[in-house]
Automatic annotation (TrEMBL):
Domain (ATP synthase F1 complex delta/epsilon subunit N-terminal): residue spans on this chain: 4-81
SUPFAM superfamilies in alphabetical order: Epsilon subunit of F1F0-ATP synthase N-terminal domain (SSF51344)
Transmembrane segments: none
PANTHER family xrefs: ATP SYNTHASE DELTA/EPSILON CHAIN, ATP SYNTHASE EPSILON CHAIN, CHLOROPLASTIC
HAMAP family recorded: ATP_synth_epsil_bac
Functional summary from the UniProt entry: Produces ATP from ADP in the presence of a proton gradient across the membrane.
A Pfam family assignment: ATP-synt_DE_N
This protein's name: ATP synthase epsilon chain
Family: Belongs to the ATPase epsilon chain family.
Topology class, membrane: Peripheral membrane protein
């Protein structure tokens, strides 16, 4: 099964990087689900939860505003602030 390469970045640091089967996030246009093979896009994120579905289960992080970029099964999420206390080390 194809995987996404995901990079989660806060304004001051790289928060998490790894493989995922799906990413969910809230954009200014509504809830968005990204799976392998998704068409390229750039979306503005609103404050809320980003879900990262990994082999170990669904991880959720709280972010404030930012953006999400998708291209060639690579998802980059950039937010000013990220509460990553629920992510594994």
């Amino acid at each position: 099964m194809s995987q996404l390469t995901v990079d989660l970045v806060a304004a001051d640091r790289q928060v998490w990087s790894g493989e995922a089967s799906m990413v969910t996030a809230r954009t200014t246009d509504g809830e968005l689900g990204i799976m392998p093979g998704h068409t390229p896009l750039l979306g503005a994120l609103t404050e809320g939860t980003v879900g990262i579905h990994t082999a170990g289960g669904k991880q959720e992080v709280q972010i404030n505003t930012g953006f999400l970029s998708v291209d060639s099964d690579r998802v980059t999420i950039v937010a000013e602030q990220v509460d990553a206390s629920t992510l594994p080390a």
